[in-house]
Structures are given as structure tokens and as C-alpha cells.
Amino acid sequence: MKLKQSLLKVGILLILPIGLMTLSSCSNKITEEQLAQLQELRRQERSLQDGISNKQTELNKIRQEINMRKADLTNCQNELNTIKTRLSQWPDIWPDYKPNK
Length: 101
What we know:
Layout: H1 2-25, H2 32-88
């Protein structure tokens, strides 16, 4: 029984330093090169986000302009239809007007 306990203690004493050396030798710290690359990528991301925002604003302005043009077109079509209707009734555009009476 004592043999098992002493072997267990020796095993732990051997495994513990080896495990600590393994864990401490591999650090997951970021290098200066990786940090610079990360900062550059973040700058690019901000730039792209700004570009997207600008394009979305521009797209909204263009859509508003298109809607205004469509409204103008509708008004022009209505005026054209009115004029065509009146021209089809020429010379009796004003039926209640009689210049000879």
C-alpha cells in the first residue's frame, strides 16, 4: 500500500513540473506583428462601414429623386390627358360659351 502511495507521489512530482513547463512555454500572447495586422484590419473595417453608410445614404437620396420624378411624370400624364380630352372636343371646349348670342 505504501508502495502505491509513494509511486503516486513520485508520479505527481514528475508530471506536475512537466505539465507546468508545457503550459508556460506555449503562450497565447499576441505578437507585435499580429497586433499591427489586427489594427489595420479594424481600420479597414471602419473604412468599409463608412463607405457602406455613405452608399446607403446616396441610395436613399436617389430613391427620393426617383419618387419625385415619378410624381412629376404622373402630373404630366394627367395634364396631357386633360389636354387631349379638350382637344378632342375642339372647337366646343366651353359648351356654355356662345360668342354669337
